[in-house]
Amino acid sequence: DVAKADQARTLQQRVGRPSTADLIGYIHDKLIKNCPVTTQDVRNAEKIYGPDLGCLKGKTVRTTPPPIRVQHNEIPPSIMDHYKNVTLSVDIMKVTGIPFLMTISRDIKFGTAGRLETMQTHHILKHFKKIISTYAVRGFKVTIMLTDNQFESMRDDIANLHVQLHVVARGDHVPEAE
């Protein structure tokens, strides 16, 4: 049966990869002269190997996926009252030499990671603005950033974002962000 199924699959490929139903119709109606393959051989090939991929390519149509439903869950007022002001622990981490700005909030433990194009102040500040707006959309306010010494030069820029910068002692690191 497997040898006959192989013959059926070879025939299907040689006659232009018609669908299995069409090939069965060709064989049944004797449209292929001197055909050694039977309709049962074609059915067996389908059962053994599944549908011929060449028959499917270009013939299958992508169905429209269902729309994505966005569900917003309200944060309970008691949680918002307690955690509204957010303290971020911040650090830059390099992965194979590529810098990423890493943050994690001290109490709610929400983390972010963003690839930095460069280590220049304006690129880092662009990421800080995105992070602060991400919290603001949900009703939180970033009030404090805990950083190591590499962010000291940005103190005024961060203050312009209405965030206090707390820098750990030289040589120390912010443990949550490590």
Write a structural description.
The chain is α/β, with parallel strands linked by helices. 37% of the residues lie in helices and 20% in strands. The chain has seven helices and five strands, in the order αααααβββαβαβ. The protein has helices at residues 2-14, 20-28, 39-49, 53-56, 77-83, 121-137, 155-159, and strands at residues 85-95, 98-105, 111-115, 141-147, 164-167. Strands 3-2-1-4-5 form a five-stranded mixed sheet. β4, α7 (155-159) and β5 (164-167) form a beta-alpha-beta unit. α1 (2-14) packs across α3 and α2 packs antiparallel against α3 (39-49). It is elongated. The mean pLDDT is 90.
Structure summary:
This protein has 178 residues and is α/β, with parallel strands linked by helices.
String of helices and strands: HHHHHEEEHEHE
Question: Reading side by side through the largest sheet, how are the strands ordered?
Answer: 3-2-1-4-5
Shape: elongated
Strand content: 15-25%
- The quaternary state of the protein chains shown equals single chain
Largest sheet: 5 strands, mixed
Q: How far apart are the termini?
A: 63 Å
The chain-level mean pLDDT equals 90
- Low-confidence segments, given as residue ranges, are none
Number of helices: 7
Overall strand count: 5
Gyration radius, rounded? 32 Å
Classify the helix fraction into a percent range.
25-40%
- Given helix and strand content, the structural type is alpha/beta
